[in-house]
Input
Amino acid sequence: MSLAITQCVVKAWSIVAGKRVLVVSYSYSHQTRNLLKGLIRGLEEEGVDLTWERVSTVQALRFPIGTIPSTVVMMLKTFLRKRYPIKPLKPIVFKQWDMIILAGPTWSYNPSGPILSLLDRDGEKLFSGQSVLPLISCRGYWRVHFWGLHSLLKKCGAKIICSPIVFSHPTPEPWRTIGVFLKLAGKDPEVGTSWFGKFYPKYGHSRIQMERAYRLGRELGHDIMSGTKPSELQFQAPVRSEANS
Output
């Protein structure tokens, strides 16, 4: 059998057999979850066999936090990388996957407390020898988050895809920082006709970014199914403004 025919047979078999992708995520205010809905839909439409494991905390974390003092306290704790205990993962996640997408928000420049707990407790068992693609939902400052996550995943023996998928809130600074803080404190800065609402029209990610997540899912799914190596994947970072979404 010629090399060309062999390659065609291998590619056809990979499509028939399917590619298995695991998505592991934590979403505090549903922003990460909303992005993943589009991404996962795109992946599945390209034929990817997908499993979605949603990390949940032992004690539910309140959103919004409710008061300005309690918001400040939580921000200080998350800056110091406070862990939040999580419930056990389903046994199915501890298998071999063609790719694992690890998704979650940035908390005070760091991965969220539940994701840190996940890495502490299950990191080596879950990620060792696996190709891992981080997806980050953030206000804007994602690099420290990624550097820390990259280091922790490497310690777990993961093969990290160097270019993460990053979605940054589209509202420009300083309005998005003030707006996120007020939202966490239980205010509704995007509601009503106040002067601040003119600069901060919406909390979180835009509808255009949700659509972009779906298109990325289609692109990523096509690459996976066609046999592209995970190390060859590249993503624009961050996906922020309405123009580049």
Observations:
- Residues 170-203 form one domain.
